[in-house]
Hints:
Layout: H1 2-13, H2 17-27, H3 37-47, H4 50-62, H5 72-90, H6 94-108, H7 116-133
Amino acid sequence: xxxxxxxxxxxxxxxxxxxxxxxxxxxxxxxxxxxxxxxxxxxxxxxxxxxxxxxxxxxxxxxxxxxxxxxxxxxxxxxxxxxxxxxxxxxxxxxxxxxxxxxxxxxxxxxxxxxxxxxxxxxxxxxxxxxxxx
Length: 134
């Protein structure tokens, strides 16, 4: 599992998205039911398959698992919320987009200063969506 995830990360870095998807899919089994999902979502996203990326990100953020307590969420939950908000925004779904922008802003409101521009951008877009909806 871990070896396949590492190969997936290497393939992502090499922009070999079919190989990355294949490696992450092979890693998507075993004891850690969440471990391969963030990489798999990024691989689909970078390959241009936004629908698959959205489905995998959703699977990651909605699957209950003890693995969340073993450091996964501290690295990928915020970026997953952010990307879900953007993907839903691109698809014209303001309700889902606003929900994920709000989750991202809440989670990262006290993030390090170098991350605050992302939080501010998400907050601004959330406010735009809410203003558009009335």
